Amino acid sequence: MAFATINGITVHYEMLGEPDAKNLVVFSNSLGTDFRIWLPLFDEISDDISVLLYDSRGHGLTGGADKPFGMAELVDDLIALVEHVGIKRAVFCGLSVGGLICQGVWQKRPELVKKLVLCDTAARIGTADVWNARIDAIAKGGLESIADNVMQRWFTPDFHEERADDLGGYRTMLCRQSAAGYVSTCEAIRDTDFTDGLATISVPVLCLVGDQDGSTPPELVETAARAIPGARFEVIEGCGHIPCVEQPEALAELLQAFLKKA
After folding, report:
1. Pairing mode, if any, of strands 9-16 and 50-54?
2. How many domains does the chain have?
3. What percentage of the chain reaches a pLDDT higher than 90?
4. Which member of 21, 140, 153, 248 lies 3.0 to 4.6 Å from 50 by CB, making a disulfide possible if both were Cys?
5. What are phi and psi of 33, to 5 degrees?
6. Is the pTM of this model over 0.85?
7. Which residue, 21, 38, 11, is CA-closest to 93?
8. 78 exposed, middle or buried (CB, 10 Å; 0-12, 13-18, 19+)?
9. Measured between alpha carbons, how far is residue 179 from residues 56, 135, 149 in Å?
10. What CATH number is attached to the domain comprising 17?
11. Backbone angles phi, psi at 207, to 5 degrees
12. What's the whole-number average pLDDT of the chain?
């Protein structure tokens, strides 16, 4: 565990390996989670891959939930953290809102981005009505009131049936997030549309999605991939919205092949 003051808030992060490593991946997690969602992946990837993990603003052990924030703050936090640990250039891998954050890093500081892995994400996620309804539900009943519905979107029916203990753990992870931080992140997603920026991405891009993703379905992710010059699109079978939890072996295989490709 490591902490740093970044843009006036305490950021929780972990740097595993060297910041100047040849194979370095910066991971940005999804709404309602913290960086522990990536841990199952590390049993599957090579030891020569260095990684930077962090909890985004208002999530996990990172502060900032006490004041409203938007996508600009989320992007600036990641840029400042990367600079804090001494990373000059890396592969950025973002899941869901993390994918939006990584697209924002490309738009603002493209020289930091070696490659992009856009995991279960798109240039625009959901509609204003969808996000406003979720925000209203949280205002009335807290995160607990939306938790079961979110679990249906995150994980496949097989996961629900066969991995009930894990399901309970990730449900608890969601419910223990800051409601204020969650709502600000919902607002950030609602107000973000990077569609016009997709065609500007000039680094190699891997877009991937679970075949049963209930939050960013395959057709949405494929639409984004088609708008990015030369992007590769892959579907992970038997997987919902969080492949690093549900299918880490398949994700690791795709990620490592992408890292090796020139």
Report:
1. antiparallel
2. 1
3. 98
4. 21
5. -130, 175
6. yes
7. 38
8. buried
9. 14, 10, 16
10. 3.40.50.1820
11. -105, 125
12. 97
Q: Are 47 and 259 in contact (CB under 8 A)?
A: no
| Interatomic CA distance for residues 80 and 102, integer angstroms | 13
**Rounded distance between C-alpha atoms, residue 94 and residue 92, angstroms:** 6
- d(C-alpha 73, C-alpha 64), whole Å: 10
**31-52 per-position pLDDT tens digit:** 999 999 999 999 899 989 999 9
Q: Which domain holds residue 144?
A: 2-260
Instruction: Map residue 207 onto helix, strand or coil.
Output: strand
Strand ranges, E, within 177-238 = 205-210, 232-236
Confidence band of 262 (pLDDT split at 50, 70, 90): low
Cα–Cα distance for residue pair 173/245, rounded to 1 Å: 13
DSSP 155: S
CA distances, 57 to each of 3, 142, 212 (Å):
13, 19, 28
